[in-house]
Amino acid sequence: MQRVRRLLVGLAAGAILLARAAVPAAAVADAGEAAEAPSPAAVELGQAFGALDQRSAAFLAQQFARRAVQAGIDRRWQEAVVLVTARNSAGGARTGTGFNIRPSGLVITNRHVVEGARSVEIRFRDGTVYPAAEVRVDDAADLALVRLNGADLPVVPLGEPHLPPAGSGVTVVGNPLGYPRLAVRGTVLGYAGQGPEPVMEIDAPIHSGHSGSPVFNEEGNVVGVVFGASAGDGGGRTGYAVPSTALHRFLAVEAP
User: Fold this and answer.
1) Residue 23 is inside which H or E element, if any?
2) In the predicted model, what is the mean pLDDT of residues 107-120?
3) The domain containing residue 227 runs over which residues?
4) DSSP characters for 163-197?
């Protein structure tokens, strides 16, 4: 059986693991209160964060080029996409994305976002913040779950575990570069690695802050969890996601 480590929030120590797709808390400190994106006034949204740097401006342009979507994802599912803030014992913090799958509060995110944290907080779309009651991480994949003491919280559907074939359309919802719950379209390029849980490769604009973002298929079920990205020679980006088969395996052990 794959070994799954358990972290009791408040007792774990050490620095949070550095990762390719997490950002400093200051970059998204007010993300939960920002205007919804994308919208016809997306440039004004960027101005609300101050003068756009080159990276942010290029990111916004890319979203319009790819027709960033919102109507294609049920609003209730977007409400279940959360901002994860993990603080370490030295006072530093990292942020990422997560998504809730149970009304009482069971948030899925990446291991590298929360591992080594002294405390973890989950912020929902309405601004409500829940402290983590417990955090568990998976050694076999870049996955973590955060338990909350909540009730009637919005959830996203998981569906049955499967690997969508190359060419399948997907939608990623996350908090990239401080923009809250941005939904972008992408395409499954294929899978890297061997075995039942290879890494899903996605042609989509994946950026800092996307760690832990759910990947939805055309039916609206979660088929992957974003954990990183790489830049291609042509200026494009390839996103990488843990497939839902690994997520279901993790949940079967830790949250049956």
Assistant:
1) strand 23-24
2) 96
3) 169-254
4) -PPTT-EEEEEE-GGG-TTEEEEEEEEEEESSSSS
**pLDDT for 27-64, tens place per residue?**
322 222 332 333 332 333 333 334 445 555 555 555 54
Q: How many domains does the chain have?
A: 1
Residue whose pair of structure tokens reads 């690997």 in the numeric block? 163
CATH code for position 217: 2.40.10.10
CA distances 205 to 66, 131, 174, 188, 222, Å, are 9, 30, 11, 12, 18
Task: Note the pLDDT of residue 214.
Answer: 96
- Is 211 contained in some domain? yes
DSSP assignment letter at 18: P
| Residues in the chain, total | 256
What's this model's pTM, rounded to 2 decimal places? 0.75
**What are the structure tokens assigned to 8, written together?**
């009791």
Q: What value does the mean pLDDT take over residues 68-75?
A: 55
